[in-house]
């Protein structure tokens, strides 16, 4: 095939891609119109039966066009997730009039290229208003910027699928009056980044955030005699390597972040678990109202009385109200040796009866309880289609 013929084909593909983008944009507009109807008639955002019927129909039509069922399913999972998140954002904005800001000042750990920076970009891409990024050197600085009014929001990592809970953030939540207003889960893809073209064998020094080293401990063990230097953020590690311009030093971070510092990715998928995700929370000075049509989570902190079975008694309250607990974390109480504060994430809305009943019951049996926030759940589980492969036969 000549270069000219190849160029013609590429131009045709580009034209089709532009048509696809236009159609996806049109589809999003239509789903926003659907959201208006749901707002007016108090209809839940998600209708998984309708989503399943849609996927079954699309798989069958895709087969007629020569498309693989798995490919069609994966493609429309992304499209449906985008639709659900956009509708949720629209409903949340309507439920909180006056909350939309022309400029969103957001504090996060690190600088451009850090995982918190990427999570911030992802979360606020669905919100109105311009984004002003405020990088910080510690979690306490992140929180203080919102507390003193320098920032409107903070984005904080709360847990990771490989390294577990980020205790320092839980400790910050124990001492702040800020409210959790949102969450998101972001994939963490650790990559070895260098400033020059080099090889793995030449690396003598590695820079990264301590959490990153924990998540990549198996890779570090395989490297052997390499000096590990901890940094206060992933972006600081990448900046250091960029400034050194040596072939024997490297940082661990995201490939997208490394691109911002002119770094080269020489090895990918470094985490112990290949499905490595971090969950982030968004905090602000004021709580938000979450419409009942939106799946919600509530985070609370409590201290139980010092007697056998007190924690079990508290958790039984959740069971009796048919409330699913998705997270339980304990942290020491400062000044009270051997006493713990318990952090709980539950599925449910503080405006709904079951959660209200549970909170009332918990107040009677705990020494201290406080709601840290009720917020839209952005963990959109893909709709499963039974025997998708059989449907395509």
TrEMBL record:
CDD domains: ACT_CM-PDT, PBP2_Ct-PDT_like. Keywords: Amino-acid biosynthesis, Aromatic amino acid biosynthesis, Cytoplasm, Isomerase, Lyase, Multifunctional enzyme, Phenylalanine biosynthesis. It is found in: Cytoplasm. Residues 299-376 form the ACT domain. Residues 105-285 form the Prephenate dehydratase domain. Its main location: cytoplasm. It comes from the Bacteria. Gene3D superfamilies: 3.30.70.260, Chorismate mutase, Periplasmic binding protein-like II. It catalyses: prephenate + H(+) = 3-phenylpyruvate + CO2 + H2O; chorismate = prephenate. GO terms for biological process: chorismate metabolic process; L-phenylalanine biosynthetic process. Pathway: Metabolic intermediate biosynthesis; prephenate biosynthesis; prephenate from chorismate: step 1/1; Amino-acid biosynthesis; L-phenylalanine biosynthesis; phenylpyruvate from prephenate: step 1/1. Residues 1-91 form the Chorismate mutase domain. One of its GO terms (molecular function) is chorismate mutase activity. One of its GO terms (cellular component) is cytoplasm. Its EC number is 4.2.1.51, 5.4.99.5. Substrate binds at residues 10, 27, 38, 47, 51, 83, 87. Catalyzes the Claisen rearrangement of chorismate to prephenate and the decarboxylation/dehydration of prephenate to phenylpyruvate. This is Bifunctional chorismate mutase/prephenate dehydratase. It comes from Alteromonas halophila.
């Amino acid at each position: 095939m000549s270069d000219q013929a190849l160029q013609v084909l590429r131009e045709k593909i580009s034209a089709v891609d532009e048509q696809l983008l236009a159609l996806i944009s049109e589809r999003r507009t239509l789903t926003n119109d659907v959201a208006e109807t749901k707002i007016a008639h108090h209809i839940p955002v998600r209708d998984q039966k309708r989503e399943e019927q849609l996927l079954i129909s699309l798989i069958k039509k895709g087969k007629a066009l020569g498309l693989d069922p798995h490919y069609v399913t994966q493609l429309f999972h992304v499209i449906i997730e985008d639709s659900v998140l956009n509708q949720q954002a629209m409903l949340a904005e309507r439920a909180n009039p006056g909350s939309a800001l022309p400029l969103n000042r957001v504090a996060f750990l690190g600088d451009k290229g850090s995982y918190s920076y990427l999570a911030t970009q992802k979360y606020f891409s669905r919100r109105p208003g311009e984004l002003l990024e405020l990088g910080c050197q510690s979690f306490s600085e992140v929180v203080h910027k919102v507390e003193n009014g320098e920032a409107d929001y903070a984005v904080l990592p709360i847990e990771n699928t490989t390294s577990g809970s980020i205790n320092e953030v839980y400790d910050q939540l124990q001492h702040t009056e800020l409210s959790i207003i949102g969450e998101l889960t972001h994939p963490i893809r650790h990559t070895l980044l260098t400033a020059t073209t080099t090889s793995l064998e030449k690396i003598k020094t590695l820079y990264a955030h301590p959490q990153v080293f924990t998540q990549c401990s198996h890779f570090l063990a395989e490297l052997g005699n390499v000096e590990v230097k901890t940094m206060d953020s992933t972006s600081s590690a990448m900046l250091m390597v960029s400034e050194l311009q040596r072939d024997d030093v490297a940082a661990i971070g995201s490939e997208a972040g490394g691109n911002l510092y002119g770094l080269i990715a020489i090895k990918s998928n470094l985490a112990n678990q290949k499905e490595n995700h971090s969950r982030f929370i968004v905090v602000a000075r004021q709580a938000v109202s979450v419409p009942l049509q939106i799946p919600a989570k509530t985070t609370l902190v409590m201290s139980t009385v010092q007697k056998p079975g007190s924690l079990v008694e508290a958790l039984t309250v959740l069971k009796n109200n048919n409330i699913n607990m998705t997270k339980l974390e304990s942290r020491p109480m400062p000044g009270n040796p051997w006493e713990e504060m318990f952090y709980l994430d539950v599925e449910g809305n503080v405006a709904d009866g079951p959660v209200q009943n549970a909170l009332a019951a918990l107040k009677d049996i705990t020494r201290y309880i406080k709601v840290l926030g009720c917020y839209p759940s952005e963990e959109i589980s893909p709709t499963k289609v039974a025997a998708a492969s059989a449907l395509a036969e």
